[in-house]
Amino acid sequence: MTATSRPPIWDVAIVGLGPAGRALAHRATALGSAVVSVDPLPRRSWTATYAAWEDELPDWLPRDAVATRTDRPAAWTMRRHTIDRTYCVLNTLMLQSILGDNCGTVIAGRAMDISPTSVRLDDGSTLNANAVVDARGTGDSPDLAQQTAYGVVVDPGTAAHALGGEAAVFMDWRRDNGTSSTDAPSFLYGVPLTRDRFLLEETCLVGRPPLPISELATRLHDRLRARGITVPSHSDVERVRFAVEPPPEAGRSHSSDQVRFGARAGLMHPGTGYSVAASLLYADALARDLRDGSNARLWPWKARAVASLRSIGLRVLLDLGPEHVPEFFGHFFDLPPQLQAAYLSERSNPRGTLSAMGRMFLASSGDIRGVILRSTLRREVR
Fold first, then answer.
1. Is 127 exposed, middle or buried (CB count within 10 Å of its CB: 0-12, 13-18, 19+)?
2. pLDDT for the residue numbered 140
3. Which residues contact 162 (CB under 8 A, 6 or more apart)?
4. Is the peptide bond preceding residue 209 cis, with omega within 30 degrees of 0?
5. What's 46's DSSP letter?
6. In this structure, are residues 166 and 190 in contact, taking their beta carbons and an 8 Å threshold?
7. Following DSSP, what letter does each residue of 297-338 receive, concatenated?
8. Which of 62-71, 118-127, 287-296 has the lowest mean pLDDT?
9. Number of C-alpha atoms within 13 angstroms, CB side, residue 343?
10. How far apart are CA 79 and CA 150, in angstroms?
11. For 9, which DSSP code?
């Protein structure tokens, strides 16, 4: 649709064109809605590494959106674990191309004011719509728990040496990164990006505040040196910093507010930082809601219950002492695969989420149980 044929009132106006906004625009357009999207830099190429468990991805996503698949990746806590799922790294450029095709009208501009039915842009113009969706991510408030990471891209031989021959390592909490058991923990994440490129990344899972990226860079190079690896100075680098929880207003939404989607709406798992797969999976549900004038599909009571349980899980992670983190994750990776998947991926399965949390509580030491109880009983106000 060209600028000269813009309808006076759009069906859907989307603010923000990251993966969530793009996915919603793509799927809403496929359902026949007249969609307009706004972003300050809509043609900016995505450079982040996006990954997901294969069983989280929607059926409509073409297979070539996945760059690599690893069956049964490893994890290290106090010992080695195998995760009985298939882990995928997405082809970022292909994903952006797929979602950018057949996605309605795109406008380069900044939203200055948003209401449930209008978007005022920085050039003074206004877009009117039956529904406005805010998909601008979590923002960068220091009050929010954040994840940080520093990674380098290496060749397969270097990765095999660093990962002990593993095809991929989801988490490695071992302390060969120059830290002691009393230091704030970080883990090594190692995955294939393509057949000949691997990402080795030191990650602070969550922190308020998180570990600085400079500290993670030091830890990564210390860890790799301890494993006999010196990273070439010309290696590509990835730096990551984002909030793992939505802005406070997302939890106080009213019927008079604009719709939110993606990480902005709380679709990000606060205990992992993953949100792209959930946004891809639930884009169809929200697109149908917007077409039909309801919102029951995206936030049924079961999803709200799981969100509350995940918030407790985040508080536990923030409250755990550094010395308890490997044990805590050891208990998680000892869970049956279906309970691991329930906690990580199933946002409408409160029974499975609660069962996973309960099993971990029973398996934990007294010190960790105390942290879990205090975190559960404490009501956090932000």
1. buried
2. 78
3. 154, 188, 190, 200, 224, 227, 229
4. yes
5. P
6. yes
7. TTS-HHHHHHHHHHHHHHHHHHHS-GGGHHHHHHHHHTS-HH
8. 287-296
9. 23
10. 24
11. S
Widest pairwise Cα distance in the chain: 67
CB count in 10 Å sphere of residue 6: 14
Whether 69 and 56 have beta carbons less than 8 Å apart is answered as no
Q: Could you tell me how far CA 326 lies from the centroid of its own chain?
A: 22
The alpha carbon of 11 is separated from its chain's Cα centroid by a whole number of angstroms, namely: 28
| DSSP states of 207-243 | ESSPPPHHHHHHHHHHHHHHTT----TT--EEEEEEE
Q: How far apart are CA 225 and CA 223, in angstroms?
A: 5
- Asked if residue 345 lies in contact with residue 53, where contact means CB atoms within 8 angstroms, the answer is yes
CA dihedral 87, 210, 179, 237 (to 10 degrees): 60
Question: How far is the C-alpha of 38 from the C-alpha of 47, rounded, in Å?
Answer: 20
Give the predicted TM-score (pTM) of the model.
Answer: 0.94
pLDDT digits 0-9 by tens, 156-203: 999 999 999 999 999 999 999 999 999 999 999 999 999 999 999 999
Q: Pick the closest to residue 22 from 298, 261, 245, 258 (CA basis).
A: 261
Question: Half-sphere exposure (CA, 13 Å, Cβ side) for 344?
Answer: 21
Edge-to-edge strand ranges of the sheet holding 86-90: 51-53, 86-90, 66-71
Q: Is the pLDDT of residue 254 over 60?
A: no
50 and 276 Cβ atoms separated by less than 8 Å = yes
Is the CB of residue 90 less than 8 Å from the CB of residue 66? yes
Q: What is the dihedral of CA 50, 55, 56, 57, to 10 degrees?
A: 70
* 116/7 Cα distance (integer angstroms): 18
* Tokens encoding 361: 């509580």
Is 368:330 a contact under the CB 8 Å cutoff?
Answer: no
Mean pLDDT calculated for residue range 272-285? 97
Tell me the residue type at 244.
Answer: V
User: For residues 86 and 122, what is the distance between their CA atoms, to the nearest angstrom?
Assistant: 44
Phi, psi angle pair for 88, to nearest 5°: -120, 140
Domains of the chain by range and CATH?
A: 3-44+92-137+245-292 (3.50.50.60), 146-243 (3.30.70), 301-377 (no CATH)
